[in-house]
Automatic annotation (TrEMBL):
A GO term, aspect molecular function: hydrolase activity
Family: Belongs to the AB hydrolase superfamily. Bacterial non-heme haloperoxidase / perhydrolase family.
Domain AB hydrolase-1: residue ranges: 24-260
Protein name: Alpha/beta hydrolase
Tagged with keyword Transmembrane: no
Lineage, highest ranks first: Bacteria, Pseudomonadati, Pseudomonadota, Alphaproteobacteria, Rhodobacterales
SUPFAM superfamilies: alpha/beta-Hydrolases
UniProt entry keywords in alphabetical sequence: Hydrolase
Origin superkingdom: Bacteria
Length: 278
């Protein structure tokens, strides 16, 4: 397996497929998953002639189960460590959910200043801020995220079964086609990672205000969001993010869930390819 070691000594697992001289696309996964969640996109884009890279966030998947650093600053710095180690340039960064927050922080703090990023795509992403505050009254109450922490601490294996079985893919909706393999794969990816990283990561994805990150992103940015996203509600995410991005494009999907990159991969892949090739 391939790893990059960060400046603070964390081994980050990554995949690197396709021609080394092709334009690179780097994928950033959601909580509490791994780079495996991008299988459908990596296979699609490598077949289109791109170089595709995806890494497991610290504490997730095959990366080191370190105790600390489970926050957006470290997530972005770890991604930059992979980019620098592979000397990636003119990169398209695609992030899902928490990975969308990672992309926003990465592009604003590392990618643009280093001149290494070409475009960004935020898929069902958490920015600008999920938590309800005085300045963000439409957000979700802290009690929601405290419930996540309690469920994870009490029985992570069951919690990681309940989330994909229910709201993540919209399998709890009337008439939904339930894919048992997708549920099992979500559980498998989650249980590969560290309970500590997952517990701390809830604060990272819910309480990190990324308003300034979005304002700072000047590269073309595509925001994709499902209108029936039960995990990251569209009104407090994409609808706000697009107003903050200087060079953003918004596309929403009626009836699509938070996990649309998996259950609606054909639609999303085509739209992302169209944006990248413009």
């Amino acid at each position: 397996m391939s790893f990059v070691t960060t400046t603070d000594g964390v081994d980050i697992f990554y995949k690197d497929w396709g021609p080394q001289d092709a334009q690179p696309i780097m994928f950033h996964h959601g909580w509490p998953l791994s780079s495996d969640d991008w299988d459908a996109q990596m296979l699609f884009f490598v077949a289109q002639g791109f170089r595709v890279i995806a890494h497991d966030r610290r504490g997730h998947g095959r990366s080191a189960q370190i105790s600390d650093g489970h926050d957006m600053d470290h997530y972005a710095a770890d991604a930059f460590a992979v980019v620098e180690a592979l000397d990636l340039k003119n990169v398209v960064h695609i992030g899902h959910s928490t990975g969308g927050g990672e992309v926003a922080r990465y592009v604003a703090k590392h990618g643009q200043p280093a001149g290494r990023v070409a475009r960004a795509i935020l898929v069902a992403a958490v920015p600008p801020l999920m938590l309800k505050t005085e300045a963000n009254p439409e957000g979700l109450p802290l009690e929601v995220f405290d419930g996540f922490r309690s469920a994870l601490a009490a029985n992570r294996a069951q919690f990681f079964r309940d989330v994909p079985t229910g709201p993540f893919y919209g399998f709890n909706r009337d008439g939904a086609t339930v894919h048992k393999g997708v549920i099992q794969n979500w559980w498998r990816q989650g249980m590969m990672g560290s309970a500590k990283a997952h517990y701390d990561g809830i604060k990272a994805f819910s309480e990190t205000d990324q308003t300034e990150d979005l304002k700072a992103i000047t590269v073309p940015t595509l925001v994709l969001h499902g209108e029936d996203d039960q995990i990251v509600p569209i009104h407090d995410a994409a609808h706000k993010a697009i107003k903050l991005l200087p060079n953003g494009t918004l596309k929403t999907y009626p009836g699509f869930s938070h996990g649309m990159l998996t259950v609606n991969a054909d639609t999303l892949n085509a739209d992302m390819l169209d944006f990248i090739q413009r």
